[in-house]
Amino acid sequence: MTAYQSQLDDKTRRLRALLAPFAAPEAEIFPSPPEGYRMRAEFRVWHDGDNCHFAMTGADGKPLRIDTFPPAHAAINRLMPRVITALHDRPALRHRLFQAEFQTTQAGETMLSLIYHRPLDDAWQEAAEALAAERGVHLIGRARREKRIIGQDHITETFCVGGRDYHYRQYENSFSQPNATVCQHMLDWATAQAGSRADLLELYCGNGNFTLPLAARYRRVLATEVSKNGIRALRANLAENGIENIAVARLSAEELGEALRGVRPFRRLQQDGIDLATYDFDTVFVDPPRAGIDAATLALIARYPRILYISCNPETLADNLHTLSQTHRIRACALFDQFPFTPHIESGVVLVRK
């Protein structure tokens, strides 16, 4: 048995045990490539006189030199030594640099962020423009209260779901799925589990990772997100893909519950022309943070016949299921190995009303 398969089997057993009290069916397992799966990587920059190298914090708390990073996509590994060479050759880029962040797409479009403990000047600008041109990357310099963009501050990832390509802007310093191969599995699985042609309510929608392909399976979608960066990316992605049956509301889950119950009106809904009374929600889709879903939001989503729940923390998922299992049963579940060789588990469950 390979080391990868062994760790995946451990995760499978752990998820099975957490879902056992809820009579869950056997989970579908979606593995990751054991290497080259990470589309993002962040490194400290460790200085030794005029030399520098990338580093991460080791188990002993000390910096561990990183020359190659096998978990990262090949485009990141190709770029890493070239960036180090540029830092050695151009002191204006190296001076008081403390962190480097790489982000790429499956097609190799790459964005490099360099983060400093000093203001950025004209010498930095000239050196950074040269590096960006030589390596064909978008380059962002960040310092306190300062951000300089060479090229653009986003890259565009593409996933094919249901025979259609969906294009996603992934903005610098904003969340996106880190493992593209497994993200493709997640999108395929979620759309395959979609319900009827009624309306979909989505909470915690982020940049619309799931929203865009799910919209093809429903009459209309109301997608909610509290993050301004998430809303910005989602609106850009809707325009990029020409999708017109998704309405976007910048509301927290708690605020949405108040709006649906008629506790108080929200000017944001009125400004966007959203009339909640016209929706016929058949399904609610949730992809909450690691803390899971609060009690008020659980009560809200339990009102709907079908719940698609993507979880980044199986313990909080199990805790939420103690509540949801009072009204719903698990019809399908899945494990998505987003982070190989770590204890982290991404999972999904489909719940239908009893």
UniProtKB/TrEMBL annotation:
S-adenosyl-L-methionine binds at Q177, Y204, N209, E225, D287. InterPro entries: MeTrfase_TrmA_AS, SAM-dependent_MTases_sf, TrmA_MeTrfase, U5_MeTrfase_fam. Its EC number is 2.1.1.35. It is an enzyme of class 2 (transferase). CDD domains: AdoMet_MTases (cd02440). GO terms for cellular component: cytosol. One of its GO terms (molecular function) is rRNA binding. The keyword rRNA-binding does not apply. The active site is at C312, E346. Transmembrane segments: none annotated. GO terms for biological process: tRNA methylation. It catalyses: uridine(54) in tRNA + S-adenosyl-L-methionine = 5-methyluridine(54) in tRNA + S-adenosyl-L-homocysteine + H(+); uridine(341) in tmRNA + S-adenosyl-L-methionine = 5-methyluridine(341) in tmRNA + S-adenosyl-L-homocysteine + H(+). Keywords: Methyltransferase, S-adenosyl-L-methionine, Transferase, tRNA processing. Pfam families: tRNA_U5-meth_tr. It comes from the Bacteria. Dual-specificity methyltransferase that catalyzes the formation of 5-methyluridine at position 54 (m5U54) in all tRNAs, and that of position 341 (m5U341) in tmRNA (transfer-mRNA). Belongs to the class I-like SAM-binding methyltransferase superfamily. RNA M5U methyltransferase family. TrmA subfamily. This is tRNA/tmRNA (uracil-C(5))-methyltransferase. It comes from Cardiobacterium hominis (strain ATCC 15826 / DSM 8339 / NCTC 10426 / 6573). The gene is trmA.
